[in-house]
Amino acid sequence: MRIFEKTKQLAGNLANDRSGNFAVLTGVVASMLMLSVGYGVNVAQSYQLKSSLRNALDSAVTSTARDLTTGAIEEEEARKMVEAFLHANSDPKFATTDRFVLDRLVIDRTAKTIEATAYANVNLAFPIFSTKDPRVSISSAAVYSDKTIEVAMMLDVTKSMEANWWSDKIGDLQDAAEDAVERLLDGQDPDNPRIRVAIVPYSDAVNTGSLSEYVHYEKTFTTGEPPAYTGVHLAAVSGRADKCATERKGAHQFTAASPAVAMVNRDVRLKFCPEVELQPLTADADTLLGTIGAFKAEGHTAGHIGIQWTRYLLSNNWANYLPKGSDPKVHDEKKVAKIAILMTDGVFNTAFANVAEDAKVREQPAKSRSKAEKLCEAMKKDDKIEIFTIGFMLNQANAKQVMKDCASEDTSSVQHYYEAADGEALSEAFDAIIKNIEWLALTK
Q1: One Pfam family for this entry, by name (predicted)?
Q2: DSSP 202-231
């Protein structure tokens, strides 16, 4: 209590002190406080402006790198692009002018990098603490690519995809695939496309459309080698009822050999041909979207036949046999990326090659799975095709395993196998794959 009374008395004396020494001391303290506050405000302004500049420049460089990658702009347009982006995203709140300034832009054609430096002058709230407005400067860099990308999407149009009262698998697939196509082709020069996409719908077989000329239509059951294509359109005289193909039989069953080596069989036991035709590589979004929009869920699941034709549409061996503009390029790790996206909603269960004449072709899960895995392994090893797989509402362990086996090996930054439990997850899987394709184009 005594200590409290003494403290109270001392405080009272200090408050009543009117001596000159204390007044001077008070002025010094006030000045120091003002200096501290002013300096703190100036530092906060500089930090805020630098943060805004960094975000704007990072976004500008990243966006410009992507446009260079897709071919939407040429190298000589890059500076104008970065400047426009900086101007649109300038935050003049603490700057002396209403925009950020691009100081330096360097494009390294060898390293495929774009580097930029930008600055802004800080409009200080307390300029008394600085002789002139200080400048904040930021540098940013991004990688771009001029690599050509070929993407073939194998999509399940079997009966199990049909819409019912609890789900609409085929509708979900159409939505996800259409979004993927639009994203892949967005922003590129249509006259000089860097990315092309192919579609392979499959069920019991694959409808080859304009490529049916290279299909050997069997009139009787056979296990022998298909003939080589000689340039004669055999379909016109074969009496065939459709344009579908099953597996290629014989020694070239698991190769990407051209039709000049061996045509592809159409087994005589095939009873159903899907309506929608495959679409070879193209940058025409309307054509691809039209193919996807025509999907109809029918038939059984010969997944390995879909994989086989996905491979053909990415193989340079077939370049001379595909429509103009759809020819796959020769694989080159630095210049050409080949991507396959394989999707199914169930067990592969239908096969024809190496199946006895009196056997039920729609009850061959072991055969179809084995052929699928062999084809996937050959695609990855021999053709250097990067494979992404999606299991859509899969419940069977065998169905999941074949998709896992077909997928390329994961890396620390890229996932290759996806499971989707519903339509939203299917769209997310396609979205993730598109992002990974963009990443691979920049890093490989």
Answers
A1: VWA
A2: ESSSEE-GGGGGGEEE-SS---SPPPPP-S
Interhelix angle 285-293/169-185, nearest 10 degrees: 180
CA distances from 275 to 37, 63, 159, 208, 272 (A): 76, 41, 13, 10, 9
Residue 31 confidence (pLDDT) above 60: no
Average pLDDT over residues 62-76: 77
Mind listing the pLDDT tens digit for each residue in 350-399? 999 999 999 999 999 999 999 999 999 999 999 999 999 999 999 999 99
pLDDT digits (tens, 9 = 90+) for 108-131: 877 778 888 977 776 654 455 555
Sequence-ordered strand ranges (E) for 330-407 = 336-344, 386-392
Delineate the domains of the chain, giving CATH numbers in brackets: 2-143 (no CATH), 148-443 (3.40.50.410)
In the numeric block, the tokens 């943060």 are attached to 51
Length in residues, the chain: 444
CA–CA gap between residue 59 and residue 65 (Å, rounded): 10
Residues 6+ apart with CB under 8 A from 396: 346, 347
How far apart (Å, rounded) are the C-alpha atoms in residues 162 and 298? 7
Alpha-carbon distance 15 to 30, whole Å?
Answer: 16
297 close to 170: Cβ distance less than 8 angstroms: yes
Residue matched to tokens 């005594």: 2
Name residue 34's amino acid: M
pLDDT reading at 49 higher than 80: no
Give the chain's radius of gyration (CA, Å). Answer: 33
Q: Which amino acid is at 296?
A: K
Q: What are the percentages of helix, strand and coil residues in the chain, rounded to 5?
A: 45, 20, 40
* 3-state DSSP assignment of residue 363: coil
**Alpha carbon distance 205, 302 (integer Å):** 6
Residues 6+ apart with CB under 8 A from 234: 213, 216, 217
